């Protein structure tokens, strides 16, 4: 009975997590919606693995390794691999009890961006041409810029955090949300962000263009200075000769 109870709890946990993953597969909301189910399933599997207090009730051996298929082990590995591939740990607190502060901030900006898109499209749908979304681009530019900047910041912080194969990615929820928003902004609404590097680029380009002028000007002045230095001793010598002649006939 003890082993059957543990197995039934794991089966119910697996069904709940599978249902959650399936329902939140599109748009992707795995990490934010299923972390509670995943945490409970880990605890249930841990209860099975530790249930080996006596030889007559060795539930761990009976449930996990007594047959060739090892269904419970296979299911557990599948959920662990899925959770790791989704990088859900990057969006959760250390104890996985909830979303991290940065993830909540991102999702809040994401929802505000979608709300802004919808609000500026209402009332214009009947007379809105496919390429005329100027109101969306103008009124939602600030919110979208904040969202895009925060995503880029999270990416940089995440890359600095480790050297593993998954370190280059944020959790799948955040990546999918940003992909959706960027496609709407650039492809559907045909909006664009002003380049923040325009001023530095112009300054550097102007400096490079003026380098030849500065080079030739400095070369010209340098050659003129050398010419004056070479002529000056002749003048001094002729003046000295003139003084000697005057002294001789005076």
UniProtKB/TrEMBL annotation:
Gene field: Ostm1
Annotated keywords: Membrane, Transmembrane, Transmembrane helix
TM region(s), chain numbering: 199-221
InterPro entries: Osteopetrosis-assoc_TM_1
Signal peptide range in chain numbering: none
GO cellular component: cytosol
This protein's name: OSTM1 protein
């Amino acid at each position: 009975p003890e082993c059957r109870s543990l197995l039934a709890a794991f089966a119910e946990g697996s069904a709940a997590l599978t249902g959650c993953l399936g329902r939140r597969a599109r748009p992707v909301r795995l990490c934010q919606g299923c972390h509670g189910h995943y945490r409970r399933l880990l605890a249930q599997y841990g209860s099975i693995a530790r249930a080996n207090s006596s030889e007559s009730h060795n539930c761990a051996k009976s449930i996990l390794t007594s047959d060739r298929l090892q269904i419970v082990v296979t299911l557990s590995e599948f959920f662990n691999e899925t959770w790791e591939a989704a990088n859900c740990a990057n969006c959760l607190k250390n104890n996985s009890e909830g979303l991290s502060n940065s993830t909540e901030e991102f999702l809040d900006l994401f929802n505000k961006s979608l709300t802004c898109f919808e609000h500026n499209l209402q009332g214009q749908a009947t007379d809105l041409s496919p390429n005329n979304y100027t109101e969306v681009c103008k009124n939602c530019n600030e919110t979208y810029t904040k969202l895009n900047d925060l995503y880029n910041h999270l990416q940089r912080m995440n890359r600095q955090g480790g050297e593993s194969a998954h370190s280059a990615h944020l959790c799948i929820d955040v990546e999918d949300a940003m992909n959706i928003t960027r496609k709407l902004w650039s492809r559907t609404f045909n909006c664009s962000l002003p380049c923040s590097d325009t001023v530095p680029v112009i300054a550097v380009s102007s400096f490079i263009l003026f380098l030849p002028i500065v080079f030739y000007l400095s070369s010209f002045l340098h050659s003129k200075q050398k010419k004056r230095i070479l002529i000056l001793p002749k003048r001094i010598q002729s003046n000295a000769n003139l003084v000697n002649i005057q002294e001789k006939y005076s």
